[in-house]
Amino acid sequence: MINETYTRSDSDQHSLNQSFHTSHGEHDHDHDGSTHAHVHDEESLRRIVNRLSRIEGHIRGIKTMVQESRPCPDVLVQVAAVRGALNRVARVILDEHLTECIGRAAEEGNMEAEIEQLKTALDRFLP
């Protein structure tokens, strides 16, 4: 397995956190017309970003393997490892969404909108 590390500076980490929050943006309007931000625990975000950084390094390693004409079976094994790692990250994100975001939506009374957004995301995510 290729094990290439990739580290980010604190400013890169903050930028990624901001990007994550921005890409998840504001949710649909609550019943009273207000919106709420998609907020996650900083420690959780750090763990997810760290996992994604390792995957990013792993993908660069696979690219190097291809450029060096390494045996196809070896490359495929590494692609499978990346696929598994991405699936594990997706699972962490889904678990957090179910516990944090859905729970918050239930408290705020906009569970239906949150469930619809999740269904839309799962339709794109699942094969």
From TrEMBL:
<protein>
    <recommendedName>
        <fullName>Copper-sensing transcriptional repressor CsoR</fullName>
    </recommendedName>
</protein>
<dbReference type="GO" id="GO:0046872">
    <property type="term" value="F:metal ion binding"/>
</dbReference>
<feature type="compositionally biased region" description="Basic and acidic residues">
    <location>
        <begin position="23"/>
        <end position="43"/>
    </location>
</feature>
<dbReference type="GO" id="GO:0045892">
    <property type="term" value="P:negative regulation of DNA-templated transcription"/>
</dbReference>
<dbReference type="InterPro" id="IPR038390">
    <property type="entry name" value="Metal_Tscrpt_repr_sf"/>
</dbReference>
<dbReference type="InterPro" id="IPR003735">
    <property type="entry name" value="Metal_Tscrpt_repr"/>
</dbReference>
<feature type="region of interest" description="Disordered">
    <location>
        <begin position="1"/>
        <end position="43"/>
    </location>
</feature>
<dbReference type="GO" id="GO:0003677">
    <property type="term" value="F:DNA binding"/>
</dbReference>
<dbReference type="Pfam" id="PF02583">
    <property type="entry name" value="Trns_repr_metal"/>
</dbReference>
